[in-house]
Amino acid sequence: DQQVKQNSPSLSVQEGRISILNCDYTNSMFDYFLWYKKYPAEGPTFLISISSIKDKNEDGRFTVFLNKSAKHLSLHIVPSQPGDSAVYFCAASGKTGANNLFFGTGTRLTVIP
Amino acid sequence: DAGVTQSPTHLIKTRGQHVTLRCSPISGHKSVSWYQQVLGQGPQFIFQYYEKEERGRGNFPDRFSARQFPNYSSELNVNALLLGDSALYLCASSLDPAGLYFATNEKLFFGSGTQLSVL
């Protein structure tokens, strides 16, 4: 039972344009959401997070939007750079989740120079 | 500073064998978690240990076990290996048990993983 879903396995974007990665979740108990980036042969690295009490969090070129009523979040990267090419995982956890993160299946982003 | 280190990086086993995977957390981190990532899927939570005690367990059979040592390093053990156990096994460490207190912005730090192939 996949509680966090990333329905787009891949996305290609021109350098300088906006990349939008989407994520949906089913468990209304989730209250903390994170995005991780993964390069080949490396572990996932934390990118940005958002608490359920917010609807937007921004960090440089990266912005995460949360729509709790729709159980949907998105990651915007502006402007996209070739170095952003990686697999992006959406993850979620509840208040008592400890380190039990629920990950989506990932979206492979390719930024074309 | 060294990040999370895992050994070995690659491992090939046959069905029915036993395997032990090792993880050293970032210096000062007391919490270690294990995740399994099957090809084409996202990481799936297996265990979390904090101060040598199990703090969480995912939906995995009893063939999977783990422990944490006084120096906070950890081992993941898998008995009676099945073909379906072939996966990338990721270890992650954090300062606090939850690793998710946004006020302190603590996060999980992942190692590069151990790629296990079961033939």
Description of the structure:
The complex is a heterodimer of chains A (113) and B (119). Chain A has 113 residues and is mainly β. Helices cover 0% and strands 56% of the residues of chain A. Chain A contains no helices and eleven strands. In chain A, the strands form two sheets. In chain A, strands 2, 4, 5, 9, 10 and 11 form a six-stranded mixed sheet that branches. Chain A has a five-stranded antiparallel sheet with strand order 1-3-8-7-6, with no helix packed on it. Chain A starts with a strand and ends with a strand. Chain B has 119 residues and is mainly β. In chain B, the strands form two sheets. In chain B, strands 2, 4, 5, 6, 9, 10 and 11 form a seven-stranded mixed sheet that branches. Chain B has a four-stranded antiparallel sheet with strand order 1-3-8-7, with no helix packed on it. In chain B, a hairpin with a 5-residue loop joins strand 7 and strand 8. Chain B is globular, with a radius of gyration of 14 Å.
Secondary-structure topology with pairs:
The complex is a heterodimer of chains A (113) and B (119).
Chain A lengths: L3 E2 L4 E5 L4 E7 L4 E9 L6 E7 L4 E4 L2 E6 L4 E6 L8 E9 L7 E2 L3 E6 L1
Parallel strand pairs in A: 2-11
Antiparallel strand pairs in A: 1-3, 3-8, 4-5, 4-9, 6-7, 7-8, 9-10, 9-11
Chain B lengths: L4 E3 L2 E4 L5 E6 L6 E7 L6 E7 L2 E5 L6 E5 L5 E5 L8 E8 L14 E2 L3 E5 L1
Parallel strand pairs in B: 2-11
Antiparallel strand pairs in B: 1-3, 3-8, 4-5, 4-9, 5-6, 7-8, 9-10, 9-11
